[in-house]
Write the structure tokens for this entry.
Amino acid sequence: MGSNFVRHVMETTPYRVTILDKLTYAASRASLSGLEPERCRLVVGDVADAEVVHSLVADVDAIVHFAAESHNDNSLHEPDPFVRTNILGTYTVLEAARAYGTRLHHVSTDEVFGDLPLGSRARFSELSPFNPSSPYSGTKAGADLLVRAWSRSFDLRATISNSCNIYGPFQHVEKFIPRQITNILRGTRPKVYGDGLNVREWLHVEDHSRAVLTILERGTIGETYLVGTGVERENISVLRMILKLMDRADDYFDQVADRPGHDARYAIDSSKLRSTLQWTPQHDDLEAGLSSTIDWYRRNESWWGPGKDAVEAAYGERENTRSDGS
Ligand code: TDX
């Protein structure tokens, strides 16, 4: 999400960007290739390191806070980096923004609201109470609450966005859609957790970048905006679209043990962002978005290939394959 946002800013604005990134397993310098070095600078460092964060915030007009550990499965096995990066990292950014009076946009997730029952038509709104399920979403909820508190207590000029599930280029192969695409490209069967009936709402990453820039430039200070498409699909139906687009049979997948505490359904009401800031998603056709994403992964094996085996080895240790697939 972060590198896509930087690319969007480079293409559509005259702004200069300084990126602070720890370059953990989830990041790659290659995600920034081709960007003008005069306008886009990478500093390698930890968002929870107050010294480095303060030194960078001293020189900027605005902060967009993407830095987070973001994968639910990892948080179930090792919560520690989630608490450090998502909570202490956000606290560090808030204190720097407070010290310099800097405008802040905080990027978050619909998972802070917990999940909704399958089959219901309910959707979360900006006013829904927090009810996170996993160590990941618990730490994101904690971070959002810190931003709200700093905004109210210290008049920090902050906004928050909570988006639905994102897909598109440059997404790490641990996540659902790129994992299945790259499995198929490698000749391995896709893996579906449980019965595959969990529902997610899908947003193309370019639409997310446009939403964040819109909120940064025109959002009302102190407000939270939900970013979504209304495009809700069962996991199995997303996988079947991918299988069709990649010319595989619709039963070419393995069902594996379900994720503990697996959220049933996420769905959000993004009408506030649409009506007050005139944002609308441009990639509203999921099949077309998946098709271009598949093309991107086909063309960019040099970007995702080197980390793929390690991701699958870690998954392999955790998953208990129930079918007789590979
Ligand atoms: O191999 C898989 N098989 C599978 O069935 C993987 C990796 C996932 N799944 C399921 C679990 C979820 O129901 O697919 C769905 C999507 O999984 P993830 O890509 O792990 O996303 P999710 O858990 O829904 O959380 C995502 O959306 C909210 C992001 O990872 C979060 O960072 C974001 O906050």
Notes: Confidence is low (pLDDT under 50) at residues 321-326.
